[in-house]
Amino acid sequence: MRWSLAAVVLGVVAAPAAAAETTFPYKAVIITDNVYVRSGPGENYYPTDRLKAGQQVEVYRNDAGGWCAIRPPAGSFSWVAGRDLEVNKDNLARVIENHAAARVGSRFSDIREVIQVRLNRGEAVEVLGAKPSGPAPSAAAETWYKIAPPSGEFRWVDGKHVAADNSADGLPRPGAGGRAGRLSAEEFQNAMTDIDVEIATMVAEEPTVWDFSELGERANSLFQQAQTATERGQARLVLGKIARFDDIRQRYKKLGTADTEVARVDRRAARLSQIMPSWGDPQGHYDAVGRLAWIPVQTAGAPQYAIVDPKGGVRCYVSPGPGVNLRSFVGREVGINGTRGYMFEQKAGHLMARQVTLVDEAMLR
Q: Under a CB-based contact definition with an 8 Å cutoff, are residues 295 and 304 in contact?
């Protein structure tokens, strides 16, 4: 089951009083290395890109939570369903449906949950590429087109990593914005968790589209910044996981035959998805049903949450989707809907949660 592509309303409010006189847009500089650019103003929104210290951005809005809406960085893109476009020559397309959704794209995966802008019929868009949503593109409705981000669509960066660029040499003002340097223990753990979630999201796709080069660079950078033996151990664990998945990717690509072990594993995962439409829910109302448990990433090598059966066995691992707070449901009996995947290393299912509902324990008996 794929995520339902519900529109996400980005509630932008007035900037704090200290920034009341700021004129938008304004030039700014990223002052922390490896900063996530996200699809919305918060860490629950999926990352779309990553910026390095010293890169310039253009800020169009600030929200009360300290997030900055910036012009989409070079290489950014959005997704539009093929049924909404009439593709012409010269990499141009015309919108043929009114209020067609432009969905914010990410260069880390094919996720396309967030909608900021809707396109009008007759509007022209620049086509950057296309990807079938199924095994074979038999109709336009089965194809998603990458387009240049439309007017009015932003990306978001945490304001602590941004400083207004008011100097002639293009460097940030002293003391402005966030801080550079080594990560705090909390920042380090958050960065490790982000990488783990991105790995789980990536491996839900076909191995042929996996690309761990950037995740490996980030994990190695965290290893270099680690200040304790525990942090170094966490970084080594993630680097080892990336290496194992990358080995699977290379073997899958090299052998390229349905008779290989990797292909057989992939087929078993596909059959599992068809034979078992939901984990622990025979009525099929949810993608997974059971008690939500917290599992330490550093010991399980998996997402931090899992749906477990009455005996404590893992039915599937769970990662939070945009705007989903799983922490408040830990220890409760829940039904979850979202994007289904398979984690090869754990030989277990994975669910990117879109909606969480408390359920009656009686339905689990």
A: yes
**Do 143 and 137 meet the contact criterion of CB atoms below 8 Å apart?**
yes
Identify whether 124 is part of a domain.
Answer: yes
- Give the separation between CA 349 and CA 306, rounded to whole angstroms: 10
Packing angle of the helix pair 185-203, 213-225 (nearest 10 deg): 160
Neighbouring CB atoms inside 10 A of 184's CB total 11
Give the least confident one: 125-134, 202-211, 301-310: 202-211
Residue 336 CA to residue 333 CA, distance in Å, equals: 10
Strand duo 56-62 + 143-147: pairing: unpaired
Tokens for 333, please give them. Answer: 């009996």
Q: Quote the CA–CA distance of 22 and 168 in Å, as a whole number.
A: 18
Give residues with Cβ within 8 angstroms of 266, minimum separation 6.
206, 207, 252
**Least confident window among 25-34, 154-163, 245-254, 302-311:** 245-254
Query: Highest-confidence range of 22-26, 103-107, 198-202, 259-263, by mean pLDDT?
Result: 103-107
Domain enclosing residue 352, as ranges: 276-364
Q: How many residues does the chain have?
A: 365
Cis bond before residue 41 (omega within 30° of 0): no
Q: Indicate if 166 and 303 belong to the same structural domain.
A: no
Q: How confident is the model at residue 362 (pLDDT cuts 50, 70, 90)?
A: low
Q: Euclidean distance between the first and final Cα of the chain, in Å?
A: 25
What does the pLDDT average to over 98-102?
Answer: 93
Domain count for the chain, please give it. 2
CA distance 176 to 180: 11
**pLDDT tens digits for range 152-180:** 999 999 999 998 876 544 444 433 344 34
| DSSP assignments along 224-268, one per residue | HH--SHHHHHHHHHHHHHHHHHHHHHHHHHHH-STTSHHHHHHHH
CB 143 within 8 A of CB 133: yes
Q: pTM for the full model? A: 0.47
DSSP label at 106? -
Based on the fold, state whether residues 152 and 288 are members of the same structural domain.
no
